[in-house]
């Protein structure tokens, strides 16, 4: 029987994949900040960083990153079969598998994450735009995955801000956030 891969190993591998492709938690947090600032005048970057980091702790996100970036890298090396290789390399408009993988990981953060993902997928802001426009590498999956992480972190933060505005106890907020990390 095969041995299970420890959670820490998976998380470290996913974070390394992001870093190796030029994606930082800070760049994701900047998108979160830009999305939430109009609704939270006292918002600080530290809260956005914490939220983006918490989303990256989720296994579903980590698994999506590992699969998506691997497919991008295989396409760069020409190691996918045709016609898949061409579709991934050119980010074919009707090839929605990249969005499907990314979208699957936002469902855990509610409808606000889903709609925010759609917005980011179309608007291509910050690091998402940089990835989308880079011509020397394939980021067909990665740009959507980053949009997914930012959308989830933004939704998570929006819910936390509302909880704080409603004077919910920190222990109750943290309990809910810990439950959100399952999966």
TrEMBL record:
A molecular-function term among this protein's GO annotations: phosphatidylglycerophosphatase activity
GO biological process: lipid metabolic process
Residues of the YutG/PgpA domain: 27-158
SUPFAM superfamilies assigned to the protein according to its UniProt record, in alphabetical order: YutG-like
InterPro entries found in the cross-reference section: PgpA-like_sf, Put_PGPase, YutG/PgpA
Descriptive protein name: Phosphatidylglycerophosphatase A
Superkingdom of the organism of origin: Bacteria
């Amino acid at each position: 029987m095969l041995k299970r891969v420890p959670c820490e190993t998976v998380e470290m591998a996913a974070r390394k994949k992001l870093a190796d492709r030029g994606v930082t938690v800070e760049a994701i947090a900047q998108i979160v900040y830009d999305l939430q600032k109009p609704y939270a005048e006292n918002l600080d970057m530290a809260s956005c960083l914490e939220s983006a980091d918490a989303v990256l702790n989720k296994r579903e996100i980590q698994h999506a990153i590992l699969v998506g970036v691997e497919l991008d890298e295989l396409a760069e090396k020409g190691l996918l079969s045709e016609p898949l290789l061409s579709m991934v390399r050119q980010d074919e408009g009707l090839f929605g598998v990249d969005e499907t993988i990314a979208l699957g990981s936002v469902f855990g953060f509610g409808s606000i994450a889903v709609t925010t993902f759609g917005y980011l997928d179309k608007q291509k802001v910050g690091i998402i735009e940089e990835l989308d426009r880079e011509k020397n590498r394939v980021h067909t999956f990665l740009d959507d995955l980053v949009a997914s992480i930012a959308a989830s972190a933004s939704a998570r933060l929006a819910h936390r801000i509302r909880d704080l505005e409603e004077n919910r106890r920190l222990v109750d907020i943290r309990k809910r956030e810990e439950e959100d990390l399952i999966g």
